[in-house]
User: Fold these one by one.
Assistant:
Number 1:
Amino acid sequence: MLKPKAIWLLVLVFTLTGFMLAAGCGNGPDVEGPPEEAPVENGDEAEYKNAAPDCWNYQPTGMKPNPGWDTVDLEGLTREELVEVLGCPPHVIRMTSVVSAAHNRELWVYHPYDEDPTGLFVWLKGNVFHDSMLDEFNGFWCYEMSDLDFWE
């Protein structure tokens, strides 16, 4: 049996949580998506061209990589180039270093096929493509860290 103090504490916690959710505190930042156009200075005129998406400030709407992903050689591409080729990753595990970008490690996962649990896994080491593979993906809780040396 719960003591009266514990009951009041639970009521308080649930009430505060409800207020926070109603105020939008649990929904994350209100970011619409990537900028559609960004100004580019060209002499006296400002031209507008499509800006590269900022994947890290919003959740991508699609789970698939960009069309043509399966025909591109990813070897040697940087993080920014991979975003241009593949699009924003819907799932990311990231380990960053404050010492040096060479120590950064990331795993991106896309869902290239409809109605299929296949995932396109893309590993980045030092902000550069390291490896990729197609394999079943049902969430990170099912993912086995088979290459522990990669994360060191």
Number 2:
Amino acid sequence: MADGSLSNLIDIRVSPSLRHDLRTPLNHIIGYSEMLAEEASNSGREDLLPDLQRINQAAREMVERVDGMFAPASGTHLREPGKTGFQSAPSLGALDHKIPPSLALPPQTDGVEARPGKILVVDDNESNRDMLSQRLQRRGYATALAENGRVALEKLAGEPFDLVLLDLMMPEMDGHETLARIKADGQLRNIPVIMISAQTELESVVRCIEMGAEDYLPKPFNPVLLWARVGSSLEKKRLREQDQEHREQTLRSEAALERLGALAQMVAGVAHEINTPLGIASTAISIIEGRLASPKIKALFEASDETREFLEDIVDSSALLKSNVLRAHKLVDTFKKISVGQITENKEKANLPNLVADAVDLFRINARQAKLSITIDVSGMRGSQDWIGYPGYLIQVFMNFLQNVERYAYPDGKGGKVEITVGDRGQDGDVQFVIVVRDYGKGISAENLPKVFDPFFTTGRGRGGTGLGLSIVKNIVNSALKGDISVTSEPSQGTIFTLAFPKIIPN
């Protein structure tokens, strides 16, 4: 009788655990022969490859014979196409990847690039754990091992993992229960899980996927399929985390803008209240000036040089008081304009150079204390200086720029230059204002430069930095002003922020 017909005559139903035990040592032979083949290829011992290939192929043929001779005892089985009645279930490996013997041992440089990640290997068989761990480590992955589901859950609770390779058939706590507990835990459910088993029941595969498993791998492994599914699971996890981080950043930015809106509303209310006593003070000063200009009052001080000096001091003090009350009025009006602009978000027509000057005026006291010399150059303005946009948002952007210069470019009150240039570019319907804010301070390192607009990134948390300022600026420029913002910098050479936005903000 030919050996090839043996599987057609023997159809023995065995328990899944016995069938698993029969396949396990054959899987070891396949796995270790593949790793030895990789090692031989990398070390220049290609002469060993043909024998290792024969060992690998023989073990694979034995796996197929086991699958053909010993059918699973129960469950939903995979049928071979075109056959009816009870048939032995072929391995999932055979269905997923029929590959010629010459490709059964792909070299290390098979084009599958390992992504950084820490993987937990869960299997009750020590040789299985060791073999899979070695294969993963050869590809640059960090690994940890667990001999059953209980130990796996303890490790998952104690340290972060990017992926779990989980065997189905284990004592104490099998793969199904372990998977169920992982997916029921709010801290663990987002970790991708790939189920691994020699079982071939379709029911088990479907059940695992329905429970939340990322994928399923049969034993023995096809190395190409192994790396593809591991890499795919890690990449999907990375994309999910990236998407979640983006959503959280958006929520944080929206919350920050809401807080700023509430603050702006409060400032508007305070500004309104301050205007009342300032108006009374302005009226009183006008009365004093009128009285001091009266000839009768002047005659009272003509008696001596000393009394004439008294009158001069009173007139000078009155003029100084009047100028500062008017300045306070202007500052309060500017605060109110900013606040109303942020609350209503109504577009207004404004002279851009004047708006920039208003922002610098608001910062004048801080600039004096920080010894900052701020200049504004509008010589690059060729067309109209009128801007239709949101003045409150633009002044907020400038206040953030100037506060950053004070805090990071020239810390500790050492002072320095700040140059602001205002110009325009483009023609016809694509005309933009371009504003450049430049300092000559500490600068930003090449490592930190790409992160300056990231939420909560700051190098000056000890100096009051929250890491939200430039993130909010970028959000305002992109969303409200419909513009772009960029930054260039070199350590010890200073930093340049360039802001460009339309002369008319579109609806």
Number 3:
Amino acid sequence: MKEISRESRATVILYLILAFFAIPHLIDDFLYDIPAEFGISVHLSQFLAGVFILIYQGIMIPLVRGAKAGVSSAIGMGIFLSLAGILKHIPLIIQPGPYWSGWFSEGLIYGLILSGIGLAIAGVLALRGGGGQNQ
């Protein structure tokens, strides 16, 4: 297997860090009935969680190989999860009173947002610097 660029390596690391925050946050969403707010049943929520994990893993394979498609998809995931955190959760966090389970839930949101933004920036730098080969 070929060596990937330093920028692409940073993208892979940030993608893993994003998963560290995104997957526990997904569980947090279930604990606080967020899917129900959108009219989504428990069974459909569980199915969609599985689909999310499959998509996440599916992006990881070309990302680790240094493919442009993997880097671009990781950028998209970082932007999507950051925006979701900002638009859905930050307004709830700034309201008076505790947010869900307190500092832990807030930490998941901040980590999700920051790692998603960092991933998007690192991914763009990897693409501009030649990281991400045509595959």
